[in-house]
Amino acid sequence: MPPAPLSRSGKSRRTTDSPISYFIQKALETPGLISFAAGLVDEGSLPVDEVGAAVAQIVADPLAGRATLQYGSTQGLPELREQVLQLVCDADGVRPSDVSLTVNDVCITTGSQQLLYLLGEALFDPGDIVITEAPSYFVFHSLLQSHGAKVLTVPLDEHGMKMDALEALLERLRRSGELARVKVIYTVDYFQNPTGLTLAVDRRAKLVELARRYSTDHRIIVLEDAAYRELRFTGADLPSVKRFDPTNEFVVYTSTFSKPCAPGLKTGYALMPPDLMAPLLHLKGSHDFGSANLSQHIASRLIASGAYAKHAEHLRNVYRKKRDLMVQALESEFSDFPAARWTVPAGGFYVWLTFDGIDTGPNGPLVQAALETGVLYVPGEFGHVFDGEESVPNNECRLCFGVATEEQIPEGIRRLRKACAAISTGKREKVKVGV
């Protein structure tokens, strides 16, 4: 007799596997496949020597070593929180007091993904509304589904989230009586995942102004995901959205050491309003009593020694070259393909490729044709939210140049062009990969 069925929570039933999991699995199980899918970092640039030196310094002092291997605090290592505060304020050209920030407003998390989840636990009830860009970071969409939140979207143009469209949406929600359900406006404002676009300076100030203006019976939080900020390789840095929140009331700024340093450290951080910190730490304490103490001490040593800043500069050169290789390959392979256009990011990992008349969706012909030619991309469809009324675009691709080698990038674009030609002509030829 089979056992009685397991009774699962509503949150468990709402939580599903991320759509990217299939593509990561395909990349892992297919030797020779060139993957532009997973947003992984450049393998050869990981700071093995720098991390090794930091660990050696820590364990060379038994007292420091024991402190490092002991439990830490839920909020995070005080030295690292102070360094993070200075790192962000220096980038914005302000003193912490100029934007009402202290070390008590900084929390260290297990990657920025934990902060996204904890913030949802602290703020969302099922049916609450989160406004995101369209397209946006699809892993965050999966997280919102788990919390039972409803996602509404605002379109992008070449300058990021369109503020006139955001204002129109907020006004529509106010008139319909749904504004009370709006809890968060989410933006990946530097070299956005998935499009590579960056939010313009004037729109950053407007975003905070709109959150403030429409916070009539409760505060609407702007969640600024700045994970790629330190990977700018063209032009000057832009002030954060947080910079336009001088009273530290409306913006949560979150970032990570994964992209500009090493994802294996699994260490992120956030700066947030003080009345949000306490409830978030209560929840974090239930999760882990604090993120990995050893990783925090390593990150702190890297910053203090100057190795972190030096490595981030090295990465900017690495990714600039990779971006250039991908754009050059697109120009070469798709110059006679008028249906193709793409973004040229000023930083980060991603190029957004759009076609006219080619179905790039997960069930469309290009995914399979690309696999047959030995290349993998992420369907842009994943970055959109289907609201049951309007269909989402199915002619977009996210191409990540993070983990692909310099040799693989032009070859991968050549294979993608071959796949496009194959479905255009109806002549598909499977190539043998992994030899």
Mean pLDDT across all amino acids: 93
- The level of helicity is 40-55%
Low-confidence stretches: 431-435
Globally, the shape reads globular
The largest β sheet comes out as: 8 strands, mixed
Query: What sequence of helices (H) and strands (E) makes up the elements?
Result: HHEHHHEHEHEEHEHEEEHHHEEHEEEH
Number of helices: 14
**Number of DSSP-assigned strands:** 14
Class from secondary-structure proportions: alpha/beta
Strand order of the largest sheet: 2-9-8-7-6-3-4-5
Terminal-residue CA separation: 49 Å
Radius of gyration: 22 Å
Strand residue percentage: 5-15%
Describe this structure in words.
With 435 residues, the protein is of the alpha/beta class. The protein contains 14 helices and 14 strands. Helix 3 packs across helix 11, helix 6 (111-123) runs parallel beside helix 7 and helix 12 packs parallel to helix 14 (408-425). The protein is globular. Helix 7 links the parallel strand 3 (129-134) and strand 4 (150-157). The protein has helices spanning 10-14, 20-29, 48-60, 62-69, 78-92, 111-123, 138-147, 163-176, 201-213, 274-287, 293-305, 307-333, 365-373, 408-425; strands at 34-35, 106-109, 129-134, 150-157, 160-161, 182-187, 221-225, 251-256, 268-271, 340-342, 350-355, 375-376, 378-379, 396-400. An 8-stranded mixed beta sheet has the order 2-9-8-7-6-3-4-5, sandwiched between helices. The protein has a 4-stranded antiparallel beta sheet with strand order 10-11-14-13, with helices on one face.
